[in-house]
Amino acid sequence: MNITRRVLIVDDDEDFLVAMKMQLKGTYIVLTTTSIAGAMELLKKEDVDLVLLDVGLEREDGLEGIKKIHAVHPSVGVAMLSGRKDVQTVVEAIRRGAIDYLTKPLDMDCLTTVIERALAMRTMKEKCEAMIRSQINGSNKGAKIIYKSKKMEMLLHESSQIKGHDANILIIGETGTGKELLARYIHEQEGSVRRPFVAVNCAAIPENLLESELFGHEAGAFTGATRRRIGKFELADGGDIFLDEIGTLKLDLQVKLLRVLQEKEFCRLGSNAPIKTNFRAIAASNQSLEELVDKGNFRMDLYHRLRVIQLTVPPLRQRTEDIPLLVDHFLEKFSYQGKKKQISEGAMSRLVEYPWQGNVRELANVVQSLAIMTRGEVIDETHFPSWVMNGNGKLRIQENDSLQGKMPIPSSGESVATLQDYIRQIERGYISQVLNLNRGDKTKTAEDLGIGRTTLYMKMKELEMMK
Prior knowledge:
Strand order of the largest sheet: 2-1-3-4-5
CATH superfamily of the largest domain: P-loop containing nucleotide triphosphate hydrolases
Oligomer: single chain
Largest sheet: 5 strands, parallel
CATH architecture of the largest domain: 3-Layer(aba) Sandwich
Structural class: alpha/beta
Distance between the termini: 64 Å
């Protein structure tokens, strides 16, 4: 479908409307009405690029119509029509929001110029509004990277080396490690407040809407598309676009994404008109894209196009020295009425020992819950609810008297079990304790034990814990 400019003419002279339709036929799609009320009804259903509004409507004030039209379609340009050019009226029309003032009979070159200007102004306004919405809705905006570990220091050093380059970046890391935070850090290194950062969570947007979200659409491109929409790639022109959960993209959309990355141009849905854009793509995934490629679920050419530079965010369990700093940061963040709670050494030790499958996001949630649920000023181990950290984290064998009691150290004269039998009973007892702690949930038990679920089943079968 070729993009065609749409013009709405509001004039109570029906002969003039018929003449304009004939004159503009084949060049523009022309809609006509004899009243402002009729224009408002049309604008509720139709998307137009320009409204030509007669100043001297017989029963209505054309100048008042500017405000009414913008109430229905805020981004449409309105140009006034008149049989004569009165300076005072022109000034008043511009003051009320008109973009131009044309006199009859219309000069076609002048009309074309006005339509193109109206379209440019509308596009700029829609981009600004869409960018504002994008920034307001963006998560992690203004958040800081808290660290002292060598792994994070090296990661940020590598990230700072990307400054000034337009190479695409792939960020790999488990859920909750802070991949978007790192993407924003890379973006901020460029040091330009005019440079846009547009974030898209590919997994959070319904599949049937994702293409429209990325590339935008024209009015009428699909059912319910009553207005033109600016897409994320258009918004990211001159800046960075962050594509989170890139591994969830379907193959047909991967093909279109590959073309945008290669050609730096695309078409809105419902249009054949190419739109040029210049951006740097920062993609992120908590899955191995190499494995998805091997399974045929991700295109190899797209994978290599995205992975010009790869950065890996370490999980929290590999940077435990950062946990005390993060806990202090979150206690400050979640303080109530300016009162920051403290945390005991024992509670901090428990937090450091826990494997944090949900990483920094999980830690933030746990600290927030402790800050809320602890009545005193100091958070201790006794304040940990049973549901926090899958039941207070890893089981400590040395503190589990019931487990030790089952396997006493033999004394002189007693029969001695083989080392293999002793280890089997210790394993069996420990797995039983962790299973009880997790109320029989084998997935959580496997996570706490640091093994895969299949390995847990095999071990339980080996230890005769399963029938």
